[in-house]
Amino acid sequence: MRRRRLLAAIGVGSLGGFAGCTSGGLVDGGATDSGSGSDTDSAPEWPSGSYAGYDTTTVEARSADGDRLGTVNAAIADTGDKRYLGLSDAAALPEDAGMLFVFSAEREDITFVMREMDFGIDIVYADAEGTITRVHNAPEPGPNEDGNEQKYPGSGQYVLEVPYKWTDRNGVAVGDTLAFEL
Fold it and tell me: What is the SS3 assignment for 84?
């Protein structure tokens, strides 16, 4: 299986510098409805494989008016090792699944890459309040590419990776919010 690595580069830090996580608390001021119900009963279990032991949270994307746009069950990558591993061991990502990268504070100039990915994803950056600051549709690398040249910059305290074009299908854009509990 091809492996994907997460490169989180900031001006003065390194991957080893991303220690700690935000624990407790709620982003976007209210409890989220897990809403998984029967929608996920037939979906593949997530997280699974290398991610089976990860904590999870339900992440809800909401419009500026507070309307629910979409929901995913996200594995939480809240340590340097988990953020570095990213989705590298995943063969695919179910439609209602994602990975939420958590940093201890807002970061400027974070760059994610598609190193050795076998599938495309959307990369959604959000600030400390959960407001989306940047969205990228990141296609899988081509047959003769390793993904290192596919760079997706942004800033924030949280980064949500979801299936490719999930943001388009759900109408999620800059200025919308992500709501979740940690």
Answer: helix
Q: Does the model's pTM come out above 0.85?
A: no
Assigned superfamily of 46-181: Protein of unknown function DUF192 (2.60.120.1140)
The dihedral of CA 33, 182, 65, 61: what is its sign? negative
Q: How many residues does the chain have?
A: 182
User: Would you state the structure tokens that stand for residue 169, as one six-digit string?
Assistant: 């299908």
SS3 110: strand
Could you give the residue ranges of the DSSP H alpha helices within the chain? Answer: 80-85, 166-170
DSSP state of 139: P
CA quadruple 28, 175, 136, 110: dihedral positive or negative?
negative
Q: What residues does each domain of the chain span?
A: 46-181
End-to-end CA distance of the chain: 31
Cβ neighbour number for residue 92 with a 10 Å cutoff? 11
Nearest to 158 by CA among 106, 108, 122, 112: 106
Q: Using one digit for the tens of pLDDT, what is the confidence trace for 43-67? A: 458 999 889 999 999 999 999 999 9
What is d(CA 71, CA 51) in angstroms, rounded to the nearest whole number?
A: 19
Contact 119, 92 (CB under 8 A): yes
> For strand 97-113 and strand 68-77, is the pairing parallel, antiparallel, or unpaired?
parallel
